[in-house]
Amino acid sequence: MDGEVILLDAYASMFGMRLRIALAEKGVKYEYREENLPKKSPFLFQMNPIHKKVPVLIHNGKPICESLIALQYIDEVWHDKNPLLPSDPYKRAQARLWADFVDQKVHILGRKIWSAKGEEQEAAKKEFIEALKVLEGELGEKPYFGGEEFGYVDVALIPFYSWFHAYETCGNFKIGTQCPKFVAWAKRCMQRESVSKSLADPEKVYDFVLILKKHFGVE
Questions:
Q1: Contact criterion met (CB below 8 Å) for 205 and 12
Q2: I need a surface site. Which of 55, 61, 100, 204 has the fewest CB within 10 A?
Q3: pTM (predicted TM-score)
Q4: 202, 212, 205: which is closest to 115 by C-alpha?
Q5: Known InterPro entries for this protein (predicted)?
């Protein structure tokens, strides 16, 4: 029995998309609660008093915060269907390493692309493409980062694809022409219903980025 599962999330959050994909892969039914990020709910503060951020997975009243940690929790609790992490300890450690690379490189550099200007933005664009090329090297000729099976790193990374339109528009550059293998992988992932139904609309993500730019005064 799944018990009560609630997801506190925001539509455009790539971190929330990770959990939506994982829960869909596992066939877990849950209650989705959209958070208004400019005016976060008291319930969010109660469930995540440390970071006060989405997403928060709540399972039988107990909150699990931080998306990569929540991903592992989902994989461990609902382990009987579509395992995300490898059973081999070394391969599992490598998967966690690459997921951390996504957060430390893809996320941070992507944020700089829409939030920075001039030389800082140009440097971020260059490093972003370099990071994607590193990921292309790790992918190699495999269909997924998990090998033949869609796995943990794929789930951690694919939500950022929904932000590519915003990155390209804000940064005035094209990602696909420079990283064709990465885009081919992303399109392969999008063929999975768990992904296509969980990822945000790129146009709506771009609208959200425009709101963020105005909020942070980087128009």
A1: yes
A2: 61
A3: 0.97
A4: 212
A5: Glutathione-S-Trfase_C-like, Glutathione-S-Trfase_C_sf, Glutathione_S-Trfase, Glutathione_S-Trfase_N, GST_C_Tau, Omega/Tau-like, Thioredoxin-like_sf
